[in-house]
Design goal:
heterodimer; A: alpha/beta; Elongation Factor Tu (Ef-tu), domain 3; 2 domains; seven-stranded mixed sheet; 15 strands; 30% strand; globular; B: 353 residues; alpha/beta; 11 strands; binds flavin-adenine dinucleotide; binds iron/sulfur cluster; binds FE2/S2 (inorganic) cluster
Chain lengths: 281, 353
């Protein structure tokens, strides 16, 4: 019998400090056992449980993309017990990884569609996974226009800066990078919160256009009316929830929002689906 | 289905024989209450109890269970690599489980034995177990099993159902697993007295006077019920002690924790409760179920609405009455069910209007 509690052993292969205040690090893991990487086949929008023996497990969105092979990456914000311990670990350390868990963004539904991505803060991880997936030469033709509004507090808090710069230069993706404020005279992108930048830059909604929105609750709250005004129906607004979790596969009962379990039925839901739950997230 | 009769004088002998090939579990008296435990050699289950204080769910889902183990000793090749803890899944039998608790096992099974994912700890223990039920002829005033899709002679989840008949037990063998146990116990004297069983069942059912109604739960809108005006009132006295969820045979929520001793550690599963504020709190401090009302509502909505809508097999309660008897402030699921089942959203709007 498969044991879904048993993590795959992994080794930390690389650690990148992502944010100027060092609160965010990206961990690149490689699997210790042959064959485990194949078993870990995932879709953008799924998450994993990072499992540190002696400390515990944390659900973290998969930041690498299904089209990247040989490793998996997660970007982790230092918050409590497990995340702080992880931030103190070093390249070469052994730990565990479970998953992939959850449902992913609805890639079948999104085929042939225009995609608007709205991200704020460090919730950009699975959005990065999605962008890399869609921009892959084998996949780009399967999607219409791609627009990305991504904001952070300051330029130094933006994740994956090298990639953002590369994407800016491409003509098959419209990047709208923004920061809340900056005193950097060389900053050549937008200044302002995500909702007003979305209002100015995002394409109109419609049957063939879906918005994927991930960010802190306050950003989501003010982005929703903007999207509604732009003509996005609630079943065309896709979000990813972050309830407290343990098992991650629908057994421990912790992450219920009504009859849905966020870890198994989600974490990705349309706003229309979320409206039908008691919204306990 | 075979019926056998067992003379009470032979009961001890039968179970002693069964103990050769099974680990036996059953209710035993501990201080003022009964508890399911592994029976020592020659120890008999105490069948004179009405029900145990805690349900027997712990037999398959221990209050605290080691799942994985590991070494943190970096001189070892396998340091920080998690392994399954070895367990004894040799045949075991629970003797004297009540039909309500056996049915509860089937409800919990929906969670731990889902079509797409299995909890190997629960499922292996379940598959290793033979359930020998004791029919219930002396219900308590808080028992309401007959209106929860269960009953004092209910057979679901049992391999053998035993009823008491003067100086003998009459045992109905319900499954192949049950037959194997009967063979091991030497229960071979067949009986054709099905009428006694039927009469016992009828009489026992008639003794259960407490009832609930659940017929409207499925059709009442989930969000309307969630927003019903009575929740603050229901939750008013609750102290969030969690007794209701820990004693309940159909509550399965758990936590996962690591425990380290020196250089070795285990990852374990511990009972948890939706009644506790930390159950849902995020690291940021945000808690989606911050108030007592929200947590009490979660418990009843899960049992009487979410579960109903998700599995279409009725409510997540077998009417054992444990939570009713043991709640320190007398919160009674029967009353809450009545409020929920009779709730009419349009009336509620009109009266607020
Ligand atoms: C689907 C999903 C995706 C996520 N993706 C990311 C990500 O990409 N990057 C990132 O930095 N964070 C992410 N989070 C949040 C992250 O899981 C929490 O910050 C983390 O669990 C905190 O653990 P801790 O031990 O440091 O905190 P503590 O407060 O010490 O937590 C102790 C335990 O509580 C649980 N827990 C506490 N808060 C949360 C929470 N908000 N969500 C889930 N479990 C919690 C965990 O089991 C944790 O081990 C995600 C959460 C979810 C549910
Ligand atoms: S037993 Fe009673 S007081 Fe304790 S948590 Fe349950 S309902 Fe509340
Ligand atoms: S909710 Fe109460 S009455 Fe129902 S099964 Fe659980 S403990 Fe028994
Ligand atoms: S985290 Fe265990 S059920 Fe969702």
């Amino acid at each position: 019998m498969e044991n879904p509690y048993l993590p795959y052993p992994v080794r930390i292969d690389d650690i990148t400090v992502e944010a100027e205040d060092k609160s965010l690090k990206t961990f690149k893991f490689v699997f210790l056992n042959k064959g485990d990487e194949e078993k870990y086949a995932y879709r953008a929008g799924q998450f994993g449980e990072l499992s540190i023996p002696g400390k515990g497990e944390i659900p973290i969105g998969i930041a690498s993309s299904p089209v990247e092979k040989g490793f998996v990456k997660f970007t982790v914000n230092r918050a409590g017990v497990v995340t702080t311990h992880l931030h103190n670990m070093k390249v070469g350390d052994i730990m565990g990884l479970r998953g992939p868990l959850g449902n992913s963004y609805p890639w079948d539904l999104l085929k042939e569609k225009n995609i608007l991505i709205v991200g704020g803060g460090f919730a950009f991880t699975t959005l990065r996974s999605s962008i890399v997936y869609m921009l892959d030469p084998a996949n780009r033709s399967k999607f219409g226009n791609i627009d990305v509004v991504y904001g952070a507090r300051s330029p130094g808090m933006l994740l994956y800066k090298d990639e953002l710069v590369q994407w800016e230069k491409r003509d098959d993706i419209n990047m709208h990078i923004t920061v809340d404020a900056t005193d950097d005279p060389d900053w050549k992108y937008n200044v302002g919160f995500v909702p007003p930048i979305t209002e100015q830059k995002a394409p109109q909604g419609g049957d063939d256009t879906y918005a994927i929105v991930c960010g802190p609750p306050i950003m989501i709250k003010f982005t929703q009316p903007v999207l509604e005004n732009l003509g996005y129906e609630h079943d065309h607004i896709i979000m990813s929830l972050e309830n407290r979790m343990k098992c991650g596969f629908g057994m421990c009962g912790r992450c219920g929002i009504g009859k849905e379990l966020v870890c198994k039925d989600g974490p990705v839901f349309t706003l229309d689906q979320i409206n039908k739950t008691p919204r306990e997230y | 289905m075979t019926l056998v009769t067992i003379d009470k004088k032979d009961w001890l002998k039968g179970l002693t024989a069964a103990a050769e090939s099974y680990r036996l579990f059953g209710p035993v008296k501990e201080k003022d209450w009964h508890q399911f435990e592994e029976l020592d050699k020659g120890e008999m289950p105490d069948l004179n109890m009405v029900n145990t204080r805690l349900s027997p769910k712990a037999l398959l889902f221990p209050q605290s269970e080691d799942m994985l183990e590991y070494s943190l000793d970096e001189t070892r090749d396998d340091h920080h690599i998690m392994k399954e803890v070895r367990k004894d899944y040799s045949p075991r039998a629970v003797v004297g489980i009540r039909p309500c608790d056996a049915k509860a096992t089937q409800l919990i099974k929906l969670n731990f034995d889902a079509p797409d994912i299995k909890d190997p700890y629960w499922l292996k223990a379940y598959e290793a177990t033979t359930f020998i039920g004791m029919a219930c002829d002396t219900p308590l005033s808080t028992c309401f099993c007959t209106s929860t899709g269960c009953g004092p002679y209910h057979e679901e989840g049992l391999d053998v159902l035993v009823m008491e008949q003067n100086d003998a037990y009459l045992a109905k063998i319900l499954t192949d697993k049950g037959q194997v146990f009967a063979d091991a116990s030497g229960w071979a004297t067949t009986s054709d007295d099905a009428a006694t069983f039927e009469a016992g069942k009828k009489a026992a059912e008639d003794r259960i006077v407490s009832k609930i109604e659940t017929d409207n739960l499925a059709d009442t809108d989930l969000l309307e019920l969630h927003g019903a005006p009575f929740w603050d009132d229901v939750a008013f006295a609750c102290i969030n002690c969690g007794t209701c969820t820990f004693s309940c045979p159909t509550c399965w929520c758990f936590d996962i924790q690591d425990e380290v001793n020196g250089k070795s550690g285990v990852r374990m599963k511990n009972w948890d409760s939706c009644m506790f504020p930390i159950f849902t709190v995020h690291t940021t401090g945000h808690n989606p179920r911050d108030t007592k009302t929200q947590r009490v509502r979660q418990r009843f909505m899960h049992k009487l609405k979410y579960f109903v809508d998700k599995y279409h097999t009725g409510i997540m309660c077998v009417g054992c009455g444990r939570c009713v008897r043991q709640c320190p402030v007398n919160i009674d699921i029967r009353r809450v069910c009545e409020l929920m089942n009779s709730f009419n959203p349009t009336d509620a709007c009109a009266s607020q209007g």
